[in-house]
Amino acid sequence: MTDQVLIVGGGPAGLAAAHALASIGRKVTLVEKTELLGGAPIHSGYAKLVPSGEWASDAIGGMVKRVAQNRLIEVKLNTTVKKFAGAPGDFRATLSDGSEARAGATLLTTGFTHFDSLNKPEWGFGTFPDVVTTTQVEQMISSKQGVRCPSDGRKPKRVAILLCVGSRDRQIGREWCSKICCSVSANLAMEIREELPDCHVYVYYMDIRTFGLLETKFYWRSQEEFKVKYIKARIAEVTSNGQQLIVKGEDTLVKRPITIPFDMVVHAIGMDPNVDNMLLSSIFDVKLEPHGFIDRANTYGVMGATSRPGVFVAGAATGPETIDDSIAQGHAAAMSALGALNLAMAAE
Ligand SMILES: Cc1cc2nc3c(=O)[nH]c(=O)nc-3n(C[C@H](O)[C@H](O)[C@H](O)COP(=O)(O)OP(=O)(O)OC[C@H]3O[C@@H](n4cnc5c(N)ncnc54)[C@H](O)[C@@H]3O)c2cc1C
Ligand code: SF4
């Protein structure tokens, strides 16, 4: 029996859970498959976060620092779990470095994979260098390089942001809404206008889902203060006339074809299930839900419970999630893990 906890995945959810458990004196092993803690906001170089406006490097960097400095948390980078056996109170994980980690409970905080825009070839990504993704624009801003056309480094005068790329698209098997990309795109549109006041920014949308309180700060502010233009449209294709990119589609409000030239086109990419999920499902013997995310055993009961007792899940591993909700779920799953440990110890 051990009361240590194994956490797999060092993004916002895993970092929050590790810190919560260590803050009440529990030992944690945190296994992260890359060479860096911080998850998508750090790996993909996000700029200013929605909704706080804080730089990702400061906000998530601060979470990384407090975990890295906590002597109760053993961080194992460049590591994955190869085998996993046992029961609540006494799990044994074989790690890729050959070592063994014992744990009374385990949390899967393995997050998501960004949609690969090459799967939407008709919208120009991979064919035209000035068709980029929201993560690329985040990196241009966070690296302080500034928003530039990759083909020749010029400042774009006209930018189109296409929403729902790899989300809400049955044709490519992705029915879900990725939840945060409307707000992220409105935020990026404002950042582009702030840096390049002469640049016209258009957002092409099916529906705008700047949910809850984000409507004011992102949807309305981007239009009223930053003069970002929104077009309700179905996009057919992105082509080029040799000088500029051409976005062709139908304005679905007036039901007319529209063809507009741009210097840069940005794909607002969605959140796919982690590409590792099939493997994680078989190693940890947890069920996936129909879209391929890790299934939660219930909605209102033990938070983060999976189909396997003693193994919990939090954050974007369960489906598209925001950072603040991933953090909250990390805390909740940590609490559930403690409950499972207590039960296992009492039964001994
Ligand atoms: C373009 C874009 C911009 C976004 N901007 C914002 C924003 O401004 N505000 C906001 O609230 N949300 C934003 N999001 C959503 C945000 O990225 C997620 O909410 C957040 O990253 C989820 O955190 P997580 O810890 O659950 O997962 P992740 O951030 O995906 O972290 C998972 C971690 O687990 C590791 N891992 C994966 N598989 C394994 C494995 N098999 N073994 C070990 N480790 C593994 C990964 O390397 C990673 O470090 C954005 C999303 C996109 C697509
Ligand atoms: S949040 Fe907006 S852009 Fe993202 S999938 Fe949902 S509707 Fe589309």
Low-confidence stretches: none
Beta fraction: 25-35%
Number of separate structural domains: 2
Instruction: State the end-to-end distance.
Output: 8 Å
**What are the distinct ligands in this entry?**
flavin-adenine dinucleotide, iron/sulfur cluster
Q: How would you describe this structure to a colleague?
A:
The chain has a seven-stranded mixed β-sheet with strand order 9-15-10-11-12-13-14. By secondary structure, the chain is of the alpha/beta class. Helices cover 28% and strands 26% of the residues. The relative contact order is 0.18. It has two domains: 181 residues, FAD/NAD(P)-binding domain (3-Layer(bba) Sandwich); 154 residues, 3-Layer(bba) Sandwich (FAD/NAD(P)-binding domain), CATH 3.50.50.60. Bound molecules: flavin-adenine dinucleotide and iron/sulfur cluster (SF4). Flavin-adenine dinucleotide (FAD) binds next to helix 1, helix 2, strand 8, helix 4 and helix 8.
Give a quick set of tags describing it.
alpha/beta, binds iron/sulfur cluster, five-stranded parallel sheet, FAD/NAD(P)-binding domain, 2 domains, 8 helices, seven-stranded mixed sheet, 348 residues, binds flavin-adenine dinucleotide, elongated
Fold blueprint:
Blueprint: E1 5-8, H1 12-23, E2 28-31, H2 40-43, H3 56-68, E3 73-76, E4 81-87, E5 90-95, E6 100-103, E7 105-108, E8 112-114, E9 131-133, H4 134-142, E10 158-165, H5 181-195, E11 200-205, H6 214-224, E12 229-240, E13 245-251, E14 256-262, E15 264-269, E16 271-273, H7 277-284, E17 311-313, H8 323-347
Parallel strand pairs: 1-2, 1-7, 2-3, 7-17, 9-15, 10-11, 10-15, 11-12
Antiparallel strand pairs: 4-5, 5-6, 8-16, 12-13, 13-14
The structure holds flavin-adenine dinucleotide (FAD) and iron/sulfur cluster.
